[in-house]
Protein 1
Amino acid sequence: MFRDSYAETSAQRVSMTEGENSSNTAQTQDQEGFVSSYLLYLLAAASEAASSQFHQKVRACGLRVPEWRVIACLHDQDGEMITRLAEFALIEQSRLTRIIDQMHARGLLVRKPDTADKRRVRVYLTGRGKKLAKQLVADAKQHESALLSTLEKANGGDIKKSLRTLLDSLS
């Protein structure tokens, strides 16, 4: 709620300064609030805006966003253990277990015991899950390409490398 109202205020502030001369623009930047220029806010707001566009496609395919994350992760590494899948999908393990149960009931994935250690369980996409993953991953790549093309003038190609470096330094 705070982010939405703040974003509206920021957007109004930006639209009011459009067309003004550069000294007024510089003055507006000096008066810019903390949140609107804070790295974590910018990362979260950009992620929210970009994700909401793609998540419409996800929902149109009958999936919820956490289910899409699971399918995308299994597309990359089918047969992952639940603990690793929770880490990659950014979902708490107990919540992920319920999501996997629901996806299993819908025929999107199956659980199988690990061949080396029967106490461990691995999760695999079914044929139906693989087909859906292939379609959505292709859509996600197109969406990503469109997003990156808007950043070309600002070295958009470097953004993924910079974010990976940031993630690595925080791990």
Protein 2
Amino acid sequence: MMKTALLVLGVTGLASAAVITNTPAFKTSLISQAGKYVALPDASHQPVPGTKMVFDITNIGNENNALKGLDRVAMFLNLAAENGAVKKGMFDIAVVFHGSATASALNDSAYHKVTKIGNNPNLSLMKELKDHGVRFYVCGQSLARNEYPISQVADEITVAVSALTVVINEQNEGAAFVPFH
């Protein structure tokens, strides 16, 4: 009985070691600050150039970290770069902030006043994404409801009349809706 138990433990230990050593390595490519991915060149549904999408981000999550939705935008671009689609303009990506994520659209000093934690952790990632053609919008209605002056919106972001109109207009132009709530 004891030999059987030791044999099972030994086999289980080897299986665990195999899983650990075969874990794919996560990496970044085009967008260096975020969007870690695993290269799967033989997997189906690789990013297709010409794809249009609108990321609808409504939840700020942890105010100390960049938004999860922005990380997913970065991951998409990194996956596209892995697939050889790296030229600016190969994808049409819009991001709209509203709800509690509205604060993410503020400049550093305004973000600090609202959150009391320091500079906006999203701005450097937004700058890098914008350099690769991503467009950013913030809901003007959410700004008004939160009493955030338009003058405090970060330079990387355009004020839209509403998040609703951004989503509708982008979808009317063929964009896939990608929610992060």
Protein 3
Amino acid sequence: MADRSTAVKIAALLASAVFSVAVLAHPGSTPEVNASRVPVAALNEIEKTTNDRFTSDPWDSLGDTRGSYLPGYGAIFTFEMSLVRVTPISPFHLTTSPEEIKSVHDRKVKQLAVLKDAMRDMLVKAAATLTTLPPSEQICFEAYFFSQSFEDHRGLPQRLSMTANRQKLMDAVARHAKPAEISALVEEREE
């Protein structure tokens, strides 16, 4: 996935999440996985709205999104990522300078804010897309961050989760709430 645009990665992440909920919300049914089940319109919309955010300093998704449906609670989607691409220590890159370490840290701090905006957008899109999820239940996206041992971790979480009630998100969208109002509906947690 390293050669694909980050916007496409985000679109694939949400499509994977949507498909996971569709499978998990219908116990006993295991639909065959094929490309026609991915909601192309949703992918196009997400790509269109996120493409400009990630072109200057893309991040790396480390594997596929995993989703679970917990009856009575809601849908939880987890993914692992590196906030920026980092050159690891290798025979071709034996040491990391203090300048490189500072640059990586500064870039990660900046990308964390971008990711938070993208995750809030994903929550809103998931609330509209996950029609099999009862409105009273929650939607949660949780990112686990990978980093190299030489990195400066100060001020950066190892994990970020965002949770919101599906009905409250749908109501906010229906009344054309401003981003600040939608953000107030999202419980954000860093560890």
